[in-house]
């Protein structure tokens, strides 16, 4: 079976719960993406930080990253919808690697904002990778996860 990595960024814990379930079902490795400088725990301040990063096209420095992604054929990204896209720390993660030939899946947790522009932004940061459409991660069932990933 192909090797898979589930990498996620979670602000409130929703994306983390889903990422853990996806990793369990897919028998995949799990990695938490964290910025070197944590986002504010104050929700309104965090929104302002996110808006600033998106408007500036920022790539926050990562706290840590896997040394090598070469053993993975597929990467599943999980994250909340921030400003109608993915958090910029997700793009920092993607741009740290050569993802040519890999398949990238993504799920987005949200409070009704859907997936926004996350698919296009992931494509732009993943040169040579096969990018699938981001899906709404809210309320995914085990069967939906299996069908989505073909496992």
Keywords:
151 residues; alpha/beta; Rossmann fold; 5 helices; 6 strands
Mean pLDDT: 94
Could you tell me the CATH topology label.
Rossmann fold
Percent helix range: 25-40%
Secondary structure class reads alpha/beta
Radius of gyration: 14 Å
Question: Using DSSP, what is the number of strands?
Answer: 6
Q: Provide the CATH architecture.
A: 3-Layer(aba) Sandwich
Strand content: 15-25%
Oligomer: single chain
The rough form would be described as globular
Taken in chain order, the helices and strands follow as EHEHEHEHEEH
Low-confidence runs of at least 5 consecutive residues: none
Main sheet attributes: strand count, strand direction, barrel closure:
6 strands, parallel
Count of spatially separate domains:
1
Distance between the termini: 9 Å
Given the structure, what is the number of helices? 5
CATH superfamily: Flavodoxin domain
In the CATH hierarchy, what is the class?
Alpha Beta
Characterization of the model:
This protein has 5 helices and 6 strands, in the order βαβαβαβαββα. The protein has 151 residues and is an alpha/beta fold. The protein has one domain: Rossmann fold (3-Layer(aba) Sandwich), CATH 3.40.50. Strands 1, 2, 3, 4, 5 and 6 form a 6-stranded parallel sheet that branches. Helix 1 packs across helix 5. The chain starts with a strand and ends with a helix. The model has no long low-confidence stretch (mean pLDDT 94).
